[in-house]
Amino acid sequence: MIKWQPGRAPRAAFHGPQALSVSLRTKTNIAITLLGVIAQMKSPLPESALDQLFRAAHTAHGFRPEPVSDETLHELHDLLKWGPTSFNCQPARFVFVRSAAAKERLKPALSPGNVAQTMAAPVTVIVASDSRFFDLLPAQYPAYDAKPIYENNPTLARETALRNGSLQGAYLILAARALGLDCGPMSGFDAAAVDAEFFPDGRFRSNFLINIGAADPAKFFPRGPRLTFAAAAQIL
Amino acid sequence: MIKWQPGRAPRAAFHGPQALSVSLRTKTNIAITLLGVIAQMKSPLPESALDQLFRAAHTAHGFRPEPVSDETLHELHDLLKWGPTSFNCQPARFVFVRSAAAKERLKPALSPGNVAQTMAAPVTVIVASDSRFFDLLPAQYPAYDAKPIYENNPTLARETALRNGSLQGAYLILAARALGLDCGPMSGFDAAAVDAEFFPDGRFRSNFLINIGAADPAKFFPRGPRLTFAAAAQIL
């Protein structure tokens, strides 16, 4: 088994008595081939990056007042947009609610327990989905005519928008963490009220919300327990 | 506006005529406070990490033969499990289909265009969801009794499992990339056939598949166009 460590060759490649009888030229060719393979293999990110993305990341329930700039929001989108979606369909839409006036429009739709943290967050992202994402498929995936698959199957279209829009929401969470920001995702809000206020023509539907900014660590909750590998996974 | 750059103080903090009249002691206190804020602020990951996670990552359509070890699959789960879910509900289940025998069980359910790449992938993950995730909520989120919210609302439960199970699938994709692996996610398969074969008791439902391993770059497709910020996002 190859361990995905930087610059480490597959073990046992040069071991065993057979290797002793291999000519220098063959050994050199094997070494060059192995170096080529190693050069193509990507290394794991440093431990500090894995901590920042996953192990030490914490859902934010309170924020420090530092604002999030337009430039940072563009950087965020320029990362998350590369995440994969079915037929490159990209159904997610992102409304960055940042001004006090826009926050006030969002406020009545929030669950009471989410009001304070959302009003304090530098930005709250409405992650929405385009219910007519398939109209864009001819431009987004010209190699194959996938539009009819969804246009003629509203249940599949709705499920595809939710699945892929959620993937893109997760890409946003991890892209934000990669940029040094903290996230507080939330499902506790009145989706119909958000849609009526922000998407009155009915084409876009809110999926979930994400507060982003620099977290106030004093307002972290203790982390909940995570399912073990044995409880959540199996290898067949 | 603060740019989230390492070790850079908020601009204009010491600028302007007012600052000239501030005492040395006040200035020192401000500086110490600012240093504290800066120390708490996380830095963006290096450009090479942003490339590996997002900008240079490519959906894999072919793989090199290097296997993926049990240890790597455990490392992968130990990262992705930390991603946030509603009420810490963690509905996703991951079946790592690796052996030839298990691949043969999966094969008849694949869309024809996905057979070759899936049979060649070192591992294919069935990302499934637990339709009774709410039974685990008392243990996973003891602070609040959220179980009845879902148990009494099958539509909400189904939607929550799909949303959060998809988030966790995206965490897996980015955790795999963070470990230096490549991913090929797919929705092209017969979900009912996968469920009948792998989850015959009906509790778990397949959501999507992800091939993982070391990609053969010769089999990359050209990347599809991505929606611009103006097409996919707005700042209010």
Overall description:
Two copies of one chain form a homodimer. With 236 residues, the first copy, chain A, is α+β, with helices and mostly antiparallel strands. Chain A contains eleven helices and five strands. The radius of gyration of chain A is 24 Å and the shape is globular. Strand 5 of chain A pairs parallel with strand 1 (92-97) of chain B.
The assigned structural class of chain A equals alpha+beta
Helix content of chain A: 40-55%
Average of per-residue pLDDT values of chain A? 87
Strand segment tally of chain A: 5
Greatest chain-chain interface?
A: A-B, 96 and 95 residues
Low-confidence stretches of chain A: 1-23
What spatial order of strands do you see in the largest sheet of chain A? 1-2-4-3
Assembly form of the protein: homodimer
Q: Please outline the major beta sheet of chain A.
A: 4 strands, antiparallel
Span between termini of chain A: 16 Å
Query: What Rg of chain A, in angstroms, do the CA atoms define?
Result: 24 Å
Helix count of chain A equals: 11
Shape of chain A: globular
Task: Map the helices and strands.
2 copies of one chain form a homodimer.
Chain A: H1 17-20, H2 24-40, H3 47-55, H4 70-80, E1 92-97, H5 100-106, H6 112-120, E2 123-130, H7 137-140, H8 147-151, H9 154-178, E3 182-186, H10 191-198, E4 204-213, H11 229-232, E5 233-235
Antiparallel strand pairs in A: 1-2, 2-4, 3-4
Helix pairs in contact in A: 4-9
